């Protein structure tokens, strides 16, 4: 099999890489189509195509790393996580990244009032952690309650977290219908979920993979509407 060889007119200099990066950012070739081989062959010689693809990958990875760096996470690697929404609100968004070096995840939560006019008023924490090390999490708040806080701690030996949850009642409203999402992340990948405007997160499920030292997560979400939640 013949070996790939970059034509001698091109070299791996910073100048060439800069030119390729400029093409990636400003050319009329849609960056979303950078892996279209036919389009690449029409526009660039073979050697530059290879450089272009390499730089494309680094640019995309850099953008992902920059996005994570811009997030003010609610916990650090291997550290406790203790988060509560402001009074009257419940958790409606979850963003998380995994660090292979740490065998752990960092989380960022977002909160809002359950629905127009609803107030999350009567609240309580689970008395105990809901899971053991490396065991599934299967937690659901009582009817007409939403998750308004999370607490967890990490163990370096198990490379896992145990979890507690805070539930708050949607006073004057009821939750119906409810549904379980699909898994929202792959192992070692970003988790990024925001509930629809009329929904709250009522339950949290996850399962652990020993080889990946990570969890996949899914949520129980419920639509909130006016009703008698405090009967």
TrEMBL record:
GO terms for biological process: collagen fibril organization. It comes from the Eukaryota. The keyword Metal-binding does not apply. GO terms for cellular component: extracellular matrix; extracellular space. Keywords: Disulfide bond, Membrane, Secreted, Transmembrane, Transmembrane helix. The chain crosses the membrane at residues 44-62. Its main location: secreted. It is found in: Secreted. Pfam families: DERM. Coiled coil: none annotated. Belongs to the dermatopontin family. This is Hemagglutinin/amebocyte aggregation factor-like. It comes from Elysia marginata.
């Amino acid at each position: 099999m013949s070996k790939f060889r970059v034509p001698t007119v091109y070299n791996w200099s910073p100048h060439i890489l800069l030119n390729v990066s400029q093409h990636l950012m400003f050319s009329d070739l849609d960056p979303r189509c950078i892996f279209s081989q036919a389009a690449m062959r029409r526009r660039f010689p073979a050697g530059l195509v290879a450089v272009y693809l390499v730089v494309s990958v680094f640019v995309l990875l850099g953008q992902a790393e920059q996005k994570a760096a811009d997030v003010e996470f609610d916990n650090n690697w291997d550290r406790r996580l203790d988060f509560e929404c402001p009074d009257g609100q419940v958790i409606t968004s979850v963003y998380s990244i995994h660090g292979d070096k740490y065998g752990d995840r960092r989380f960022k939560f977002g909160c809002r009032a359950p629905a127009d006019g609803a107030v999350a008023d009567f609240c309580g924490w689970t008395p105990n952690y809901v899971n053991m090390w490396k065991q599934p999490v299967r937690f659901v708040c009582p009817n007409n309650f939403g998750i308004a806080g999370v607490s967890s701690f990490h163990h370096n030996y198990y490379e896992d977290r145990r979890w507690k949850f805070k539930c708050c009642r949607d006073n004057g409203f009821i939750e119906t219908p409810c549904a379980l999402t699909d898994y929202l992340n792959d192992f070692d990948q970003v988790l990024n979920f925001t509930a629809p405007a009329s929904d709250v997160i009522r339950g949290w499920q996850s399962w652990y993979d020993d080889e990946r030292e990570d969890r996949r997560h899914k949520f129980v979400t419920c639509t909130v509407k006016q009703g008698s939640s405090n009967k």
